[in-house]
């Protein structure tokens, strides 16, 4: 049944495949019709892009044409900025030179003021030291006078001589005071004169430096003023010239753009004329193409409906066969179910008969297993009985070992005691005549005891051997009894096992024979039922085959006829559309010829206009560039001349200010070095030495007069 069902399904799939293939074929035919119509439409549509391509390319060339002239005004602006930079640089360098020149006077003034304050401070300090020395001289002289009076008061001699010495000492003290005071006063005058001289030198050096600073500043002002003004005027002149150049550039630029606009207008007019050639095609070609496409689409739709109806009829016929197969399939399945039920009944009866035979055999096996369990229990009881005979043997052996150890221990203890008695005799401390008899007596006793111990040990060994033989005899007797019992039990068990085995084997053989007879009868009965069912199913299958077999010829023939009908209908529709296309293509070809001629003329004219435009642009740019180069070169030369001349003078002033600075400040540095070296302190130090020496020399002289 499955192969018949598969055959019908194959034919049905072929019919359905043919039916489903009709729609794509008709759609393809419609697409071909539409492509024929669309091809002409695309030719018409392609004319417009060709206009756009030709005129658009020319328009792009016109728009891309370089009508931009290089504006020379930025160059003037750049030069004006450069001149302004010259002016600023010159002003900046003059400011730097001025700062250097002014710093010469400012530094000299500041340094001279500092040195002047330092000189005055140093002089005042030295004057203070001189005043202190004068006070020291006065105090020392007064102290020496008191000391001298005290020493004279202690001197022995006449009053007249003492007074004479006093007058002489006083005169010496006053002379020293007067000399030192005069010396210190002179040093003070010297310090005042030195300070005045230093102040004069400082003023002279300061004035020289400030004067040179003023002179350099004046020179710098006269050197920079005029060039800066000239550069400023030149800057404005260049700016004005740049404005003029910019105006000329804009005029030339406007003229070129006007010329390019003329070319653009020409292209716009040419595009309008080309559109006048192409636009009428839409009203001439489109209607005929649309009518042809509509007629072809209608014919294809009619063909599709006709073929679809015929395909549906064949499909319905195949569906009816499939339903018939389903009905027969149900009858076959019912027959199979009946046969299966009958076979199941036969099998179940055979199984029941087999179970009846298996029940006695199962009882025989269970009885055999019960007997085996009894034999196992008997052997286990015999094992326990035999093992009980051997349980008393370890106790007897243990008692025998304990007795032997006790006897040996007692004998060893007795011998040890006898030897202890012998060792206890104080033989070293007793007289030899007394010791020897005692030792001999004890030795004899020990010898007797030892002999008795040996005899006893021999007797005990003999008794132990007798006991051992008795125990071994008992063990052998028990072993013989146990072996006998085991052999008897084994023989009985083997005999019973043989009887049981023979009985079980006979039962199994008898049961197997009966079961074989039952199974053979069941197989024969199942074969009969199966053959009847197969004959019935084959008859049903033959009915189905009678309806399916003719389809192998009918369906392919029907599909072939339908395919031919579809092919001829599609060819007729496409051919009608091809005729309409040929007519429309003639109109398009004529319009394309006129359009190509018009576009060629326009291309030639616009190309010539572009060449003329480029020539005009080159000429204008050359003229503007030449004029700008000439003016800029003259301006640049003037600016460089003004800058270089003034810069040379500024550099000269800067160099003089820097180079003369050490020379002008060196006198101040020398004065500073003298002050640093202590020019005012040295006279005071020398005076202090002289004062100290004179006062130190006065003391011995007074001591000599007072002695």
Question: Explain this structure to me?
Answer:
The chain is an all-alpha fold and 707 residues long. It has helices spanning 2-64, 73-153, 159-278, 280-423, 432-548, 551-676, 681-706. It starts with a helix and ends with a helix. The longest helix has 144 residues, at 280-423. It has seven helices and no strands. It has a domain at 73-311 and 564-706.
Which bin fits the share of residues in helices? over 70%
Strand content: under 5%
How many DSSP E strands?
A: 0
Please describe the biggest sheet, giving its number of strands, its sense, and whether it closes into a barrel.
none
What's the overall geometry?
A: flat
Q: Span from first to last CA?
A: 179 Å
Number of helices: 7
Low-pLDDT ranges: none
Broad structural category: mainly alpha
Give the gist of this structure.
The protein has 707 residues and is mainly alpha-helical. It contains 7 helices and no strands. The protein has helices at residues 2-64, 73-153, 159-278, 280-423, 432-548, 551-676, 681-706.
Short descriptors:
707 residues; mainly alpha; 7 helices
Blueprint (SSEs and pairs):
Elements: H1 2-64, H2 73-153, H3 159-278, H4 280-423, H5 432-548, H6 551-676, H7 681-706
